[in-house]
Specification:
alpha+beta; 17 helices; 12-stranded mixed sheet; 5-stranded antiparallel sheet; 657 residues
């Protein structure tokens, strides 16, 4: 109950205290802010300057000279922020829910502008200008286009996400709905609440921080201490005048629509629920008035004396807002605060603790494995990868991920003594020199001009538009395979391909569901089955699962013993490829390699060969068949248009599609 009440009060304080009070200046500023932020159709030009040079220099120092790639990225970011401003041009139509955002960088000296990207939202479709974005990233050597996209991508300008399609992740739709359209409506509803609070309860409350600079021009200035003092003062004002605020809430809730209520609290909260919570809050505040006031004093003291002291003492924010004409407004915000090194050091300490805990768990698992299975025979120069085995056999419940963001742990037994080697080795990242009372400044400057429009005239792009679902066709897919142990890494557009892993898990879940349905049918009916449709008709299966790889449909076939099984079969969770060595040549499992790279492999029953359709042609793969699986030499993949390279230093073959 207490958490709920404090949460409600904190939300109210955030909405009210930094922007309102009841002096003439405060009411004038509030009304102007409300007027400018509730324009239905508008355009905005904004400029943002960010200064984090001190902090980035400190982080660069702590990263260490050996981390060349991270250092290079940090230096590029530092240079860009020093020399450039970020500019935005925005058009927004709330009535039709349309939006156009164009981002630039501008050189502070030459005033030369360069586009970063353009984002357009119209007719429930979201368009990203990837041509601009990639051009920007390439210019500053952040990415290499040739390492991300293949030759088919030359004419792509926009990537489109259709939010009406089922395949679109719900998080994208939720983000847009919550943060663009609904938030605009919520602002208008919040202003109704603040209007009632000013009228009913806040006649004697003031922030004392609003200054009138001229006709329709105001300035608000807060230090960190001001923010704490004003926030606590407002909460105390609510507690000591709780009946007045309660009346303001009654008036507010009695005069908003059901749609407004849903916007604020969601579709599962009723008016009755709200009134019950309001009554609970009122009773709690009255019963625990002095206790809550004391808690606020304690909170104030803790904020001023605790870990946040340095940041609060350095915090400054100034906003200037002016009505320039009947349809235009100008605003400026300057924000500055210091980040203590203890914040950064504490983050690193948490990573160090997590890494050590992971290493202990893995080491214990290896010891149990060796105790139960004995020490394996390994050549002096050989390495045995037991990573996935530890998970599959229950020595680890899951494979821990490095807290430093450099991938999964890999566990190997090395040499005749079977020495345990766990990578990545993060110990070099543990030590950070803590400098007491040292801090680094961050400052932001944002200036904006807003104009009211009669029409936004936002146009959907039509040239060079590609659906996001098809982007896999244009991105470079890379597979790195260690020939000695079969371990592999799978990348799409230079990023680890989690999409393949997700599809693999979904596919295997489908195979399990189908297999269970087959077994139940054959057990209960004492009969063999050869049709998935029969399983659906008889109620053993709700519907035919869709293959997430988009290749062949699921079917029931008979194995060599006449038993029913599902095809395509489940994919091994083992993060290794079953490599066969024949006459000193390494052979890869054709199906798994081709499917990892996003293509479909088929079987020609007449020629007894596996093939892949490339540009409408059947390309047959020559190889050997072992246990009903086709294994091929690496160079055989070049028939499919894949590029194959050998890295002798890492003993890896690199396959690029």
């Amino acid at each position: 109950m207490k958490k709920r009440i404090m949460g409600l009060m904190l939300v109210l304080s955030m909405v009210v205290t930094l922007f309102t009070g009841c002096t003439n200046e405060e009411v004038g500023y509030y009304n102007l802010a409300k007027e400018a932020s509730t324009i239905d159709i508008m355009e905005c030009n904004a400029t943002l300057e960010i200064n984090t040079d001190e902090l980035l220099a400190y982080i660069e120092e702590q990263v260490g000279k050996d981390n060349v790639e991270q250092i290079a990225v940090l230096q590029k970011v530092r240079t860009l922020l020093k020399e450039k401003q970020i500019q935005f041009y925005i058009k927004y139509d709330e009535n039709n829910f349309e939006c156009y955002i164009q981002a630039f960088i501008m050189d502070k000296t030459t005033k030369e502008k360069e586009p970063i990207t353009t984002v357009i939202y119209k007719n429930e479709k979201l368009y990203y200008n990837v041509e601009e974005l990639i051009g920007f990233l390439e210019k500053y050597n952040i990415v290499n286009l040739d390492e991300i996209f293949n030759d088919n991508a030359k004419n792509i300008k926009y990537v489109c996400i259709d939010l009406n399609e089922e395949e679109v992740p719900s998080i994208t739709d939720m983000y847009l709905e919550t943060n663009i359209q609904d938030s605009a409506q919520k602002y208008k509803i919040y202003y109704k609440l603040i209007d009632e609070m000013i009228k009913e309860a806040m006649a004697d409350f003031t922030t004392g921080k609003v200054t009138k600079l001229g006709n329709d021009k105001y300035q608000v200035a807060f230090t960190g201490e001001d923010v704490v003092n004003t926030g606590i003062s407002f909460l105390k004002h609510v507690i000591t005048n709780v009946d007045k605020y309660n009346e303001a809430l009654n008036t507010f809730f009695d005069n908003i629509t059901a749609k407004d209520l849903e916007n604020l609290f969601g579709s599962y909260t009723t008016y009755k629920d709200i009134k019950e919570r309001q009554e609970d809050t009122l009773n709690y505040i009255k019963e625990h008035k002095q206790e809550t006031l004391n808690q606020l004093d304690d909170m104030k003291a803790q904020l001023k004396l605790g870990d946040y002291k340095q940041m609060i003492n350095s915090f400054k924010i100034t906003e200037t807002l002016e009505k320039v004409s009947s349809t235009s407004y100008a605003g400026n915000v300057e924000l500055s605060f210091d980040v203590p090194t203890t914040f950064i050091d504490r983050s690193n300490e948490s990573k160090m603790i997590a890494d050590k805990a992971n290493l202990r768990e893995i080491t214990n698992a290896v010891q149990r494995y060796l105790w139960n299975n004995g020490t394996p025979e390994i050549g002096a120069d050989e390495r045995l990868n037991i990573t996935q085995f530890l998970v599959d056999e229950g020595y680890l419940t899951w494979l821990p991920i490095s807290p430093y963001g450099n991938g999964n742990y890999k566990v190997e037994l090395v040499g005749t003594e079977a020495k345990t080697v766990i990578t990545p080795d993060n110990t070099a990242l543990y030590k950070i020199e803590i400098e007491d009372d040292k801090s680094y400044n961050i400052s932001l400057k944002l200036s904006s001009n807003i104009n009211s429009l009669s029409s936004a005239n936002i146009v959907e792009p039509t040239e060079g538009v590609v659906d996001v679902k098809d982007m896999g066709k244009y991105a470079i897919h890379q597979l790195k395979v260690n020939i000695d142990d079969g371990s592999y890494e799978n990348y799409l557009a230079k990023m680890y391909d989690n999409d393949y892993e997700a599809k693999k898990y979904a596919h295997n879940a489908n195979v399990r569901a189908l297999t269970n349905a087959i077994q139940r049918y054959e057990w209960e009916n004492n009969d063999k089955i050869d049709s998935i449709q029969t399983l659906i008709d008889e109620g053993y299966l709700k519907e035919l699962p869709v293959n997430p790889f988009g290749t062949e449909e699921y079917k029931i076939v008979k194995d060599e013993l006449g038993n029913s099984k599902v095809t395509p079969e489940a994919i091994s969770y083992d993060d290794t490829l079953d490599i066969k060595v024949i006459d000193d040549y390494s052979y890869l499992p054709a199906r798994k390699v081709v499917e990892i790279l996003g293509d479909e492999i088929n079987w020609d029953v007449i020629q007894k060969k596996a093939y892949v359709v490339v540009n409408g042609q059947n390309i047959y793969l020559d190889g050997v068949i072992i246990n009903d699986h086709t294994y091929i030499k690496v160079r055989e993949l070049e028939k499919l248009g894949y590029k194959v390279n050998w890295n002798e230093a890492t003993r890896e073959v690199e396959i690029q599609k």
